[in-house]
User: Fold these one by one.
Assistant:
Number 1:
Amino acid sequence: EAGVTQFPSHSVIEKGQTVTLRCDPISGHDNLYWYRRVMGKEIKFLLHFVKESKQDESGMPNNRFLAERTGGTYSTLKVQPAELEDSGVYFCASSHLPAGTEAFFGQGTRLTVV
Amino acid sequence: GENVEQHPSTLSVQEGDSAVIKCTYSDSASNYFPWYKQELGKGPQLIIDIRSNVGEKKDQRIAVTLNKTAKHFSLHITETQPEDSAVYFCAASGNNAGNMLTFGGGTRLMVKP
């Protein structure tokens, strides 16, 4: 069974540009989460999808971040326009319903904004 | 909201020794406490978890203990090996619909051969 897959693994963009990160969850997992780790600090929650619906987006830092999960399969996280403080590692995780089951993480996308 | 503190931030042990990492949490409603291991270039991988109705759980060389009264939980690794070297994260999750995880700051464990 394929794990959670994230694309790209690395991205270097200039301040003001747009970047789109993609996450393919484990097949059949209805829960999909985005987290990020900035500058070696703790991993912080960004948002949670159940199928195609946003269940909780309380962790999204501001309106420059837009997440979608069309059709309840893969998800994208767009940052537009990117700022220097957006640099970090963005993780995607997925799990079965109901909530409370083990979450499997992808390898992460390292985003560097210069 | 929940706040998770993790100590130490770095830990260096000799191969064969034990390693202990401690975490405290603030929300008494939290009831699920997983531990993740992150190796270089990889995502966090669940190594063990414990729920609030259990005080201790063991899986071969790793064990986790939970003290709900004091709101702290610990990871114990015995007979450490060089391949145990990684960053370890504790996390807590409350009784919320989404099971969102709140992570500690991570511990970089180095096992010297």
Note: The first strand of chain B starts at residue 4 and ends at 7.
Number 2:
Amino acid sequence: AQSVTQPDIHITVSEGASLELRCNYSYGATPYLFWYVQSPGQGLQLLLKYFSGDTLVQGIKGFEAEFKRSQSSFNLRKPSVHWSDAAEYFCAVDMFSGGYNKLIFGAGTRLAVHP
Amino acid sequence: GAVVSQHPSRVICKSGTSVKIECRSLDFQATTMFWYRQFPKQSLMLMATSNEGSKATYEQGVEKDKFLINHASLTLSTLTVTSAHPEDSSFYICSARDWEAPLQETQYFGPGTRLLVL
């Protein structure tokens, strides 16, 4: 079955520390991959996306993600976290299902940042 | 560019009434729009895919007669929650694909509408 898994529901890091949020997917074809961030009560903001080419993609706010086909993963990283990064992060995969393309979201990872 | 708006941002209504939520692509044309529902501290669940000029495609388990979707133009889709009940209280988010973008696969999300049914 097609699915997106974010194993970590909550992550807490100290400000200035590095961050890695995990994302694994199950999909038979080459996926289009996305990371979105959601602040409380807000819509989603696109951080970065991977369609093809270089497997290490750079996004906004200093985030990057690496697509690893062999591991079916698309983990999000940031070398130094800022307090303003505290939010909910969603990994999503654009899949062809039921006759059309649609985004399937992971359950999300809530990031807390300690000063 | 690629801004999607929703109106209203927040609505409170009485049980049994209907509520209409608008989703607009402000600076691009969107032949396809999506409606999602998000419960507190949960992920987004796709409710339906809306194509301009045709009927919406609903996901399994979503009542099409309760959640009416209209996509009358390339910049506007509406979701009407009919005969709303407290269990319909949720955060509703729309998104749109930019038809003319080189990579149409990117969806742009609206800010969401919080619905509270009393």
Note: Chain A touches chain B at residues 32, 34, 36, 41-46, 49, 51, 90, 94, 98-108, 110 (CB under 8 Å).
